[in-house]
Amino acid sequence: MLEKAFERCGRSSIGLKSDAYRLNLVDIILPRSSQFRELSLRLEPDVFHEFLCWPPGLFDALECVDLWYGYSIQIPSEKARVFQGSPMLQRVTIQALYEEQPLFPSFPLPLGLPWAQLTQLDFGIIRIPLTVVHKLMDLCSNIHECHLCLYSDSDFTDPFDAREYSTGTILLPCLRELDITVRGEDPTVDLYCRYLRPLRLPALQEFNFLLPEDEEELTSAFAAMIIDLSTSHPSLRSELCYLGSSFCAAEILAPLTFVTSITIPYCSLPRSAMELIFQGEIFPKLASLAVCIKPVDMEAFMAMLRMQWSLKSESQLPHTFTGIRSVNLCIDDSIAEFSHFTQEMDRLRDQFNLDIKLSRTEYDIISSCRCIGIA
Fold first, then answer.
1. How many domains does the chain have?
2. Quick check: is 9 in a domain?
3. pTM of the full predicted structure?
4. Residue 19 is part of which domain span?
């Protein structure tokens, strides 16, 4: 059926999305390689390796490639050439079906992508050493959107030689959106400051980041980077997802002034932080909040939310004025209490036109954080 569909295409450009792991690339893709505009494939590791070994110049019309692979992969001993000779290629997504640590510390540099012409880059949950990320940013001079998963080089048994790469300033004049996921054990704060803070991002509009569990020191390092960004980007939007089991200290969160969306699934929002948020002392631009709330604090939270919007209504401030408009709360309580809070939220929703809902599981909270790339 696929062969017949391709025959009907004639010489027209083709976009193909396939979830068939054992797709015969040689018979299906290779003969029509010059016609493909978009490719989205799920591949077994050996097929993925075979694809990378194809000669350059085959995909001269390719604009977007989206490759998924399962389990461990191997990169050819020499730099892959299949993406060379693709003058139209701009968007690249390479994802692992399972979170894993690559067998080689220099990923994704050996892929041989035309880095300078790429505008969108997404490596999801594939763990990349910071030194390599720094080199990658230096190569991607035209990048507009970027999603990376960072690891400290100390997580690798055979570290990539950091001395090969300079840690000087890197200018990315077109980068509008940067998504960063931080994973790994014992992250080195010095490395994050060393390889991320030198980035100069004059066009940045949105900065989304996910931090690992209970890493207040690392959160502090990101806060230092954010101070630099917020100084030169007063209209910057940011989404924060924090996986820690305890809430960060207020002095660490204070610099995160441009955060507009927060997801915190594994620790309850303390009453003290709740008050600081509604007073505008932390996260003054917050518009969306997805957190767990203790039953004893629910009444206080809803009272603060009601007061915020009542004051705005009385002063006739526009709805675009800074304020929480979207709320997803997780509460583990009895059916009767859950029903009571649901009714109160319905009243808040109807009165102030808020997007507000109550969840019974942490999964609903986690799923609201779009910068988590866990398959």
1. 1
2. yes
3. 0.76
4. 1-89
